[in-house]
Amino acid sequence: MSDAAIELEFARMHQSLIEEPEQGKASDLVKGVNKKCTFVVFMIGMFQQITGQAFAAQYRAVFIKSLGTINPCAMTLSNSCISASAIICTLLTVDKIGRRRLLLVGSVIQCAALCTMGGLGVQKPTSYAHKSGIVACLSIFVYGFGSSWGPLTFVVVTELPALRLRDKSQRVGALTNILFNFLVNFTIPYLLNAPYAALERKVGFIYGSSSFAAFWFVYFYVPECRGRSLEEIDIMFHEGVPLRKFKDHPRLRIEVRPGDEVDEAKLAVSSQAIHLEDK
């Protein structure tokens, strides 16, 4: 690592410590700029669950068996491989493609797959070809989820919160995730089976609509933090940078003047430069 890179990281950490001098209280989560972070963390945790991952994961084998088209065990193993492959690809490419873009594309794939599944399930009686299409749509959904909302939820929840509130924000995200996971798992049997809603394949319309809403939430509220340090993200929130403008916001850079000493520096931050000056 070059001297300039070390000095830049020091400057960001120094500024972050200046702005976040102590651990925050739980009430700080809904104050000032922290309200944005808490809102995004809550919604990200919610959308990960209500877009249908529990249906595709916990009820997949039972659902496929009810169709009578393919061995549910073989399809479960196949979908597990698809999911693992998608997650690995995402982890390898997320810093090149970006969190926001992957979440948007993943939401489109999920919405298209689930709504198509619901459409194929409308016709009665459902033909073998339609049932095979439903199984294929489920696999496409698994790929879309594994390449976006599955792994990236935890990335976004970790990156966005203020440093002094990061542990509390992550608790909010985890609690939200667990709560909606329970609600979705609890309601799935009632949505699928008679004598309740008996939607069967048409449940895809419900989760597809949630994926549609997730797309617009990401478009308007999830910032692109690719290539940004945690300290830099924190500074942008304090500067009031609009969430959709994070990607285009000027990168913070450091300028060290001749004779300056980093360990005795006074830090002055702007969105254009970080100057180190003698005290």
Automatic annotation (TrEMBL):
<keyword id="KW-1133">Transmembrane helix</keyword>
<protein>
    <recommendedName>
        <fullName>Major facilitator superfamily (MFS) profile domain-containing protein</fullName>
    </recommendedName>
</protein>
<feature type="transmembrane region" description="Helical">
    <location>
        <begin position="204"/>
        <end position="222"/>
    </location>
</feature>
<keyword id="KW-0812">Transmembrane</keyword>
<feature type="transmembrane region" description="Helical">
    <location>
        <begin position="172"/>
        <end position="192"/>
    </location>
</feature>
<dbReference type="InterPro" id="IPR005829">
    <property type="entry name" value="Sugar_transporter_CS"/>
</dbReference>
<dbReference type="GO" id="GO:0005351">
    <property type="term" value="F:carbohydrate:proton symporter activity"/>
</dbReference>
<dbReference type="InterPro" id="IPR005828">
    <property type="entry name" value="MFS_sugar_transport-like"/>
</dbReference>
<dbReference type="InterPro" id="IPR050360">
    <property type="entry name" value="MFS_Sugar_Transporters"/>
</dbReference>
<feature type="transmembrane region" description="Helical">
    <location>
        <begin position="102"/>
        <end position="121"/>
    </location>
</feature>
<dbReference type="InterPro" id="IPR036259">
    <property type="entry name" value="MFS_trans_sf"/>
</dbReference>
<dbReference type="Pfam" id="PF00083">
    <property type="entry name" value="Sugar_tr"/>
</dbReference>
<keyword id="KW-0472">Membrane</keyword>
<dbReference type="GO" id="GO:0016020">
    <property type="term" value="C:membrane"/>
</dbReference>
<feature type="transmembrane region" description="Helical">
    <location>
        <begin position="133"/>
        <end position="160"/>
    </location>
</feature>
